[in-house]
């Protein structure tokens, strides 16, 4: 827990972030980020598709407080969706609402999202709204519910470490949801602090969402969870078309290919761009084993 808190603190430390970004994506970041450009992201998507893996790409960035930057981020998302269609890859788009102006003006964020979803709809594609820290949870769900009035090609993520996760699952019944444990440092007033409690609630919301007949994107690298989900689906006659597994680019690649070879949909979350620091620090915080990526990155320089 101490190690996790250190990395979560570093993820939000502007001084360390600025220093790190001057060094470039070192300390293992290059192992888990697919370059800096759309072309590099599409090339990575193609290679993963060739292995039988689906993809979702995320142009890294969050907490934008300038209107022009938010509009530029939305334009970049549109360009990315167009590039997916041109490349013919099996690939969705993931994004964060704070990158699109959520902290500036809700209507600006909605306008940006509508432009993105219109483009995705033209290409019969899907957009996932990543969940951010707890302070942005309700605003994110408010934007999502408003968008769902006009679009069915958008979903979000629910974080199992939050006490309210089960209620949110029920409120979002029928929606395509990514189900995750959670990667932010939330207080004990709103989130479970013990790993066993998070695990228990994670399995609860996965099973609850699947039994609701809703599409579940189970995002985990834990082979025990994966095995339990497979068994649960089989015992309850839940079609493989109703769920998929998701993992992060660069993590447990052998298992990703094994799951796909078994006939399950396996989607890889592929981040790209210059704003890699916060993402990478949160990955190190999630699992102590991830620190080995930092050592490899350092030794390769």
UniProtKB/TrEMBL annotation:
UniProt catalytic activity: L-proline + a quinone = (S)-1-pyrroline-5-carboxylate + a quinol + H(+)
The cofactor remark states:
Binds 1 FAD per subunit.
The UniProt record lists the EC number as 1.5.5.2
| Keywords carried by this UniProt record | FAD, Flavoprotein, Nucleotide-binding, Oxidoreductase, Proline metabolism
InterPro entries on file: FAD-linked_oxidoreductase-like (IPR029041), PRODH_bac_arc (IPR008219), Proline_DH_dom (IPR002872), Proline_oxidase (IPR015659)
What's the name of the protein? proline dehydrogenase
What species is given as this protein's source?
Answer: Alkalicoccus luteus
| Domain Proline dehydrogenase, residue spans | 41-290
As one GO molecular function, the record gives: proline dehydrogenase activity
Co-factor(s): FAD
């Amino acid at each position: 827990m101490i190690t996790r808190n250190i990395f979560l603190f570093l993820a939000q430390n502007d001084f360390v972030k600025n220093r790190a970004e001057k060094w470039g994506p070192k300390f293992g970041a290059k192992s888990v980020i697919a370059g800096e450009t759309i072309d590099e992201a599409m090339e990575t998507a193609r290679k993963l598709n060739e292995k039988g893996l689906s993809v979702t790409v995320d142009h890294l960035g969050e907490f934008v407080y300038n209107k022009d930057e938010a509009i530029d981020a939305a334009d970049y998302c549109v360009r990315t969706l167009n590039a997916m269609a041109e490349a013919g890859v099996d690939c969705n788009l993931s994004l964060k609402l704070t990158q699109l102006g959520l902290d500036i003006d809700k209507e600006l964020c909605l306008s940006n999202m509508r432009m993105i979803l219109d483009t995705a709809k033209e290409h019969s594609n899907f957009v996932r709204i990543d969940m951010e820290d707890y302070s942005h949870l309700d605003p994110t769900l408010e934007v999502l519910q408003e968008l769902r009035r006009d679009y069915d090609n958008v979903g979000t993520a629910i974080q199992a470490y939050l006490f309210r996760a089960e209620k949110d699952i029920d409120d979002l019944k029928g929606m395509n949801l990514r189900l995750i444990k959670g990667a932010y440092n939330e207080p004990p007033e709103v989130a479970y602090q013990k790993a066993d409690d998070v695990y228990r609630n994670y399995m609860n919301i996965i099973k609850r969402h699947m039994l609701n007949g809703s599409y579940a994107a189970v995002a985990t690298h834990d082979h025990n969870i994966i095995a339990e989900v497979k068994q649960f689906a089989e015992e309850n006659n839940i079609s493989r078309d109703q769920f998929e597994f998701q993992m992060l680019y660069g993590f447990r690649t052998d298992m990703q290919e094994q799951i796909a070879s078994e006939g399950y949909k396996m989607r890889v979350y592929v981040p790209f761009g210059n704003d890699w620091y916060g993402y990478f620090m949160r990955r190190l915080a999630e699992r102590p084993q991830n620190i080995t990526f930092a050592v490899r990155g350092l030794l390769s320089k």
